Amino acid sequence: MEARRIVAYHRVSTAKQSQSGLGLEAQQEAITGYAATVGATVVASFTEVESGKTNDRPELQKALHRAKVTGATLVVAKLDRLSRSAAFLANLMESGVQFIAADMPEANSLTVRILAAVAQQEREAISKRTKEALQAAKARGVKLGNPNGASALLKAGKGNDAGVAAVQAKADAYAHDLRPVIASLQAEGVTSLGALAEALNGSNIKTPRGGLWHKTSVKNLLERLAA
Known about the structure:
Helix content: 55-70%
Number of strands: 4
Shape: elongated
Strand content: 5-15%
Number of helices: 9
Radius of gyration: 21 Å
Order of helices and strands: EHHEHEHEHHHHH
Distance between the termini: 51 Å
């Protein structure tokens, strides 16, 4: 399948990634490279800031509409930029809009359905492993997602040595409690800092300070586990 007119669709997981261009530039380069290879023209470009779990994507709907009314082909850098949901991809294919993943332009609809189903199965397996690890931690009496977390200790310690030591001890203990969760995610192939952060946030696991996980906080967690 070759596309002569292209509507480009990019997806980044967080507003921070959108602002920094993290991941976005690589997607743009992949689609631009594909367009150059087949001699196509990019007639419109849309960027979504959403989670891979979310099927409600206004920018994707705009991209689909533009492709439909112009007869263009929707192009994404990779299949997972659309969704990990097999049902969502099936609905997309049935919408009548042709789409191509730049990393697998020769894939037919059957190939895409199979890959989407495999991705969905992997996602469910990751979710199941994470839940099992959380249940095991809770069974040991661990309380995850402390809303006060280390910030309360920092305030109470007022920067003295005892306060700092208390914060470090709390963070070390919390990292220990999350070890089986991280191990189960890594065993399922979730290894990058961004993917780990998304998985932890998706499981409603808070940082020691009660906030959301980002690449930096995941990096700190892994360093504590390694130490």
